[in-house]
Amino acid sequence: MTAAHAMAERRMTAPGAVAPPPVKFDFWSSMADLAALVLRSGTRGLKTRLGVALGLVLLGKWTGVYAPLLIQRGIDHLNRGHTGGQMLFAAFVGYAIGWVALRFISSAAPLARDAIFTPVSQAAMARSAVETFAHSLSLSLNFHQSKQTGGLSRIIDRGARSTDFLLRSVVFNLGPTVIELLMASYVLTSHYNWRLAAVAVATIVVYVAFTFGISNWRIQHRRALNEADSLAAGLAVDALMNYETIKTFGSDERVVDRYRAAMADYAVAGVKANTSLQLLNAVQSVVLSLGLGGITVLAGLEVLQGRMSLGAVTACILILQQVYGPLNVLGVNYREIRQAFIDMEQMISLRQVQPEITDAPHARDLPPASGQGAALVFEAVGFQHTARSVGLHDISFTAAPGTTTALVGPSGAGKTTIVRLALRLLDPQSGRVMIDGMDLRDARQASLRRAVALVPQDVALFNDTLYANIAFGRPDASEAEVWAAAEAAELARFIEGLPYRMETRVGERGLKLSGGERQRVGLARALLADPRLLVLDEATSALDGRTEAAIQATLRKVRTGRTTLVIAHRLSTIVDADQILVIRRGRIVERGRHEDLIAQGGEYAALWRRQTRET
Fold first, then answer.
1. Which of 220, 242, 284, 458 is most buried per CB count within 10 Å?
2. Which one of 272, 287, 307 terminates a domain?
3. How is 348-370 classified by DSSP, letter by letter?
4. Residue 187 — very low, low, confident or very high, per pLDDT cuts 50/70/90?
5. Angstrom distances, CA of residue 479 to CA of 105, 199, 568
């Protein structure tokens, strides 16, 4: 088991969201979930493939159990014959050929089954991944602010892959082994003696009991090994990433000593894990050997008493070896099988988390755009975060079409929450938010997303080309429109100076670009979307003064025909706003134009004096 598997048992919770229920091992519910995934996989000819695959399973197991009976007949035929050596040998060869043919069918049936069923298992794996990924994107902002991105990605990946693993290991390996045991018990009872079947069943029961018991005991050793491995790997990666700091402070030996101690712990844990594995393998081997020996002794007694032939002894041994073979998979993969069940259950639990923001049953599109911008209205809106002591209280304002409304105030006052309510990333707990006369809770989210665009303070880009990142705002835009948006965002000259121009890749989250360049890409993307409501969350904070002035001039131009909602900390960027709302502790304490607020001599005027004095 890998360290990633060990971390699978950590719980993922989302404060303020509906958290996944605790994940525990439940075989039958997991099998029901697996069956449901297969049935909705959408594979062409699903029922036919299922039927043929199950038929091949039964055929392979039956031929594997029945084949030894042919070799028994061949041996008995030789043993009873006294004359006609050539005829006896020919008959024996015939039985031997039949035995080989049935053995071949027994071996080939699983291969044919895999070829027929693999499209189903792969489709089920892909379907589960897509469904879980889509559901994750549908979850609320509250959930995604609380989750660990890497952990969520691993849940989706491991959960999807577990479906294929479980189908191969449980459904088509261990499950058919039970059927094979029943077939073998029937053959041993009907052809020989029920005691042989009883010993075979008892051997397997004892084998399974020891395997599960020792494997569960081994978990502590595997966990210790994984933790030691994670610690050593973490120390190594951390040291290599901070090489310059280590060299600067001359800490080479100290860091190496810590790594040496971690590797020593890993070696001790590795010895314990390996020793416990060898103990498991030894116990399994002893149980199977005793079972096979018991069957052989009983068969020998039956021969002495004249109730069985020598060929029957050979057949019994071959039947038991056929049944015991797949049990090795249980011994080796028990922990992985159990972990796969947990991985799948974690994926199912994630899909059970309900999104907080959903379309109402009666939801409809926003009214058609007027071409003048959106009418944004907050009516007595209240909202309280679970992670904050201060929320919004009685927020009421109107942003008329084509106007600019600025939100100012200290950090934590509630400005970003107001923006998220306007974007319907959150729903108000009291009051309502409307665009063009429609409560956002009555509007389809797809319609709302087409009507608004956000330029955040920290623009995150996709690890793709500049063109793809700008065109993300409107994928059907022409190349000329993409370039026009880049020009409007004062980005065109920068792009033209790049070796690959628009085909330049920006790196993960756009980290190959500077903060100001990322902001301009974000602005170009928003302008290309041509929204009726443009939201700017300190969208020029990372720009130099000259570029910011150019962007502000561009923004004044593009405000025509759209409504703008701005969060600003530098008041110089919003002096021409149609209204300024001063937010403090979740309330609007002042509102008006820049000149009016300065004349009032209140909180805004004090903030203005402080900023102008600093500059």
1. 284
2. 307
3. HHHHHSPPSS---TT-BPPPPP-
4. confident
5. 60, 76, 32
Tell me: pLDDT of 545 over 80: no
**pTM of this structure:** 0.61
Q: What is the DSSP string of 58-120?
A: HHHHHHHHHHHHHHHHHHHHHHH--S-HHHHHHHHHHHHHHHHHHHHHHHHHHHHHHHHHHHH
Q: Is 369 domain-assigned?
A: no
Neighbours of 572 (CB within 10 A): 15
Count of structural domains, the chain: 3
Tokens of 321: 């070896």
What would the pLDDT profile of 403-428 be if each residue is shown by its tens digit?
888 888 887 788 888 888 888 888 88
pLDDT in tens, 63-76: 888 888 887 787 77
Q: How far apart are CA 247 and CA 268, in angstroms?
A: 30
In this structure, the answer to whether residues 30 and 150 fall within a common structural domain is yes
Residue with tokens 């259950």: 345
Q: Answer yes or no: do 158 and 203 share one domain.
A: no
For residue 493, the enclosing domain spans 376-614
Q: What is the pLDDT of residues 109-153, one digit of tens each?
A: 888 888 888 888 888 888 887 877 777 776 766 666 556 555 567
For 462-488, the DSSP string reads -SSBHHHHHHTT-TT--HHHHHHHHHH
Say whether both 137 and 285 belong to one domain. no
Distances 304 to 124, 191, 229, 297, 311 between C-alpha atoms, Å: 55, 17, 58, 11, 13
Which H or E run contains 512? none
The tokens 């059970």 sit on which residue?
352
Give the H or E element holding residue 147: none
Q: Are residues 152 and 281 in the same domain?
A: no
- What CATH number does the domain containing 491 carry? 3.40.50.300
H-helix or E-strand spanning residue 457: none
Q: Which tokens in the block code for residue 558?
A: 């593009």
